[in-house]
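Q: Convert this sequence to structure tokens.
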Amino acid sequence: MKINVYGTESYVTWLVREPVEIDTDNYPELEGKTEEEVKEYIRENYWEMKPTNEDWYGDLGEELQQMDLRRDKIYNEETGVIFDNE
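A:
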């Protein structure tokens, strides 16, 4: 009997990109909010917010994802095996 055995790896990668500085005065939806309220709003809406550079990006989410990497971390690495038909 011959059995194909495959080695597997899985892990979690955490990427942190360079920051984008926004001026809250340029975002009417942030007017009158506290710093914590602004942060929460951005967490929930960054894909719908205008970017700081409208010539290059369609929204703030796209701009954030295109910034250069500042650091990365790989953790929770696991190894194992699988066989054909798994």
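The chain has a mean pLDDT of 95.
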